[in-house]
Write a structure and sequence with these properties.
The protein has 18 helices and 13 strands. By secondary structure, the protein is an alpha+beta fold. It folds into three domains: 119 residues, no CATH class; 108 residues, no CATH class; 208 residues, MetI-like fold (Orthogonal Bundle), CATH 1.10.3720. The longest helix has 30 residues.
Length: 524
C-alpha cells in the first residue's frame, strides 16, 4: 500500500506540474499581455510617456519582464560609490530630447544604455511631449529612459513552482531598517487576549507579527510561518495573494471587542493576529493601537470565505445527490424496463443532453416563480433559502450520474452466476439485491465519494455564476473576464491538486470496502 501511494503521489505531482505548466505557457504566450490592463483604472487614466512607464512597471510586477528605470540605476550607482548624490540629481534631469541633455546626463545615459544593452535588455528613450500651441509639457508627457527584458515563460513556470511555499523569516524586514532586536518571542499570555492564558510565538523582523497563536476559531491553532502562494491577483482582488483571497471572510464588517498591542480596547473588526509589517506606518493615529510597524491587519467579516461558500454548497449538493441518486438507481435496476426505469431514463437523458447552463436557468426561473431567492446575498448568509436553488441545481447532474451508473452496475451483476446460485438457494429478491448485488455494484460508486467531497471546495463555475454565489468557481469566471492570469493559473493548480488527492483517496476507499482489491499484490 505504501509503495503504491508513493508511486501514485509522484505521478500525480508530475501530472499537476505538466498541466499547470501547459496552462501557463498558453496564457503567457498566446494571450496579448495588454489585456491585463483591461480593468486597470490607473492605466486608463494615464497618458503618453507616463502610461508606458506605468505599463512596463506593472508588467514587471506581474512577472512578464525585468524592468529598470534610469533613476533606479543612478540610485544604485550612488549606493556603490560611483556617483555622488549631487551629481545624481543633475544626471537625472533628462532634457526634451537626448540632444538637449546636459553633458553629465549624456555621460550617465550612455553608461546606462551600454550596460543594459550588453545584457540583452531593450533600452527605450521617450522624449518629452509638448503642446505646439502652448509650448507646455503635456500631462503624462515627461521624458523617460528605461530598459526591459522579457522573462521566458519557461523561467516563469520554474519560478512559480519553486516559490509556492514561502517561509516567514526574521530577515524579511531589510537589515538597514532599525526595528530593534530581531528574533522570536514566546509567551503563555497572548496580549491580544488581555494577558489571558493563550500561548503564542511572535516575531520581530518577520513579515507576520504572530507566527503561531491560539484562538476560539476552528482549527483553534493557527500559524503564519508557512504560507501557500498561488499567485497575486492584479484585478479582481488587487494586490492580494490568491490563497488569501479564497480563504478570507467576506460580507459586512463584524465588530467585536479587540485588544490592541498597546492595551487599547475597542469595538472594531480588526484581526490583531493577522498583523504584518509595513515600513514607517506607525502614525499618530496608529500609535493609539500599535506599538510598532506591524500595523497592517485584516478585518473580521460577517460572511464566509469564497472557499467556505463553495464548500458548504458543494457538501449539501453531494449529500442530496447520494441521498436521491442511490435509491433511485437501485429502483431503476430492480424495475428494469418498467415505468420507474423509463422515467428515470428520461431524466438521465434530459440532464445529459441539455446544456448545464440551460437547465440551471430553467430551474432558476422555476424556483423564482415559487418565491425562492434566485441570487445569493452575503449579507444574509444565515438564511437557508439562499442555498436551496444553487444546491439543487448543482446536485441535478450528480443525481443523474449516480442513477445511470448504479443501474448499469446492478443490471450487470444481476446476470452473474452468483446471483443465479443465490436464487436457487431460496434467497428472496430483496436479500439478493441488498446483500449481494448492491454491495458489489456500489464499489465503483464509492470510488467517487472522495472526489465529490473534495470537489465541494472547488465550487461549481456555472452554478455559482448564475446564482452569484461568492465562491471559488465564481472567482475563476471573474478572473477570466478580467484577464487576471495569475488567478486563473492559481485556481487551475488548486483544482489539479484536489483532483489528484481525490483519485488517491478513492483508490484507498475502494481497497477498504472490497477485500479483493490489493495494492501490494502483483497480478499473475
Amino acid at each position: 500500500m505504501t509503495k503504491y501511494l508513493i508511486k501514485r503521489l509522484l505521478h500525480g505531482i508530475i501530472s499537476v506540474i505538466i498541466v499547470v505548466g501547459i496552462i501557463m505557457i498558453l496564457i503567457y504566450s498566446l494571450i496579448d499581455r495588454s489585456s491585463v490592463f483591461s480593468g486597470d483604472t490607473t492605466y486608463s487614466h494615464t497618458a503618453y510617456n507616463d502610461k508606458k512607464v506605468y505599463m512596463y512597471g506593472k508588467l514587471e510586477e506581474y512577472g512578464y519582464l525585468d524592468f529598470v528605470q534610469y533613476a533606479d540605476y543612478l540610485s544604485d550607482e550612488v549606493a556603490n560609490g560611483n556617483l555622488s548624490a549631487t551629481d545624481k540629481t543633475k544626471a537625472a534631469k533628462l532634457g526634451k530630447t537626448a540632444e538637449k541633455d546636459s553633458d553629465l546626463t549624456k555621460q550617465w545615459t550612455t553608461s546606462f544604455t551600454e550596460k543594459y544593452t550588453s545584457n540583452g535588455y531593450n533600452v527605450v528613450r521617450l522624449d518629452a511631449i509638448y503642446s505646439e500651441l502652448t509650448g507646455k509639457l503635456y500631462n503624462g508627457g515627461n521624458p523617460a529612459l528605461f530598459a526591459y527584458k522579457d522573462i521566458s515563460v519557461f523561467v516563469r513556470v520554474w519560478k512559480y513552482f519553486t516559490g509556492i511555499v514561502k517561509v516567514d523569516r526574521i530577515s524579511y524586514v531589510d537589515s538597514s531598517i532599525d526595528i530593534g532586536e530581531r528574533g522570536l518571542t514566546f509567551t503563555w499570555n497572548d496580549p491580544a487576549y488581555g494577558g489571558a492564558f493563550a500561548p503564542a510565538i511572535m516575531g520581530n523582523g518577520t513579515k507576520h507579527k504572530y507566527l503561531l497563536y491560539f484562538d476560539n476559531k476552528f482549527p483553534f491553532i493557527h500559524q503564519n510561518v508557512f504560507s501557500i502562494e498561488l499567485g497575486v491577483s492584479y484585478s479582481i482582488s488587487q494586490g492580494n495573494e490568491l490563497m488569501t483571497t479564497m480563504t478570507e471572510s467576506q460580507g459586512a464588517l463584524a465588530p467585536r471587542t479587540v485588544i490592541y498591542p498597546t492595551g487599547y480596547v475597542a469595538e472594531r473588526a480588526d484581526d490583531v493576529h493577522s498583523a504584518t509589517y509595513v515600513q514607517n506606518s506607525l502614525s499618530e493615529i496608529n500609535n493609539i493601537y500599535f506599538d510598532d510597524d506591524y500595523t497592517n491587519v485584516t478585518t473580521y467579516k460577517s460572511g464566509m470565505s469564497r472557499m467556505g461558500y463553495s464548500f458548504v454548497m458543494g457538501i449539501f449538493a453531494t449529500l442530496l445527490a447520494y441521498f436521491l441518486g442511490v435509491p433511485l438507481g437501485i429502483l431503476m435496476a430492480r424495475k428494469k424496463d418498467k415505468l420507474a426505469d423509463k422515467l428515470g431514463t428520461i431524466y438521465v437523458v434530459f440532464i445529459t443532453a441539455v446544456p448545464s447552463l440551460a437547465y440551471i436557468l430553467m430551474f432558476q426561473s422555476l424556483g423564482g416563480s415559487m418565491g425562492l431567492p434566485t441570487t445569493f446575498d452575503t449579507k444574509y448568509t444565515l438564511n437557508p433559502l439562499y442555498y436551496i436553488l444553487p444546491v439543487v441545481s448543482l446536485a441535478l447532474p450528480s443525481i443523474a450520474g449516480l442513477m445511470r451508473w448504479l443501474r448499469r452496475y446492478m443490471v450487470d451483476q444481476m446476470a452473474s452466476d452468483y446471483v443465479k446460485f443465490a436464487r436457487s438457494g431460496g434467497l428472496s429478491e430483496t436479500e439478493i439485491f441488498t446483500k449481494h448485488i448492491f454491495k458489489n455494484a456500489a464499489i465503483p460508486i464509492i470510488h467517487g465519494i472522495p472526489g465529490s467531497l473534495l470537489g465541494a471546495l472547488t465550487g461549481a463555475i456555472i452554478t455559482e455564476r448564475v446564482y452569484t454565489v461568492p465562491g471559488v468557481g465564481n472567482t475563476l469566471t471573474d478572473a477570466i473576464t478580467a484577464h487576471d492570469n495569475a488567478v486563473i493559473v492559481g485556481i487551475s493548480l488548486f483544482y489539479s491538486i484536489l483532483s489528484i488527492i481525490s483519485i488517491i483517496l478513492g483508490d484507498i476507499l475502494m481497497a477498504l470496502v472490497d477485500p479483493r482489491i490489493s495494492f501490494s499484490t502483483k497480478g499473475r
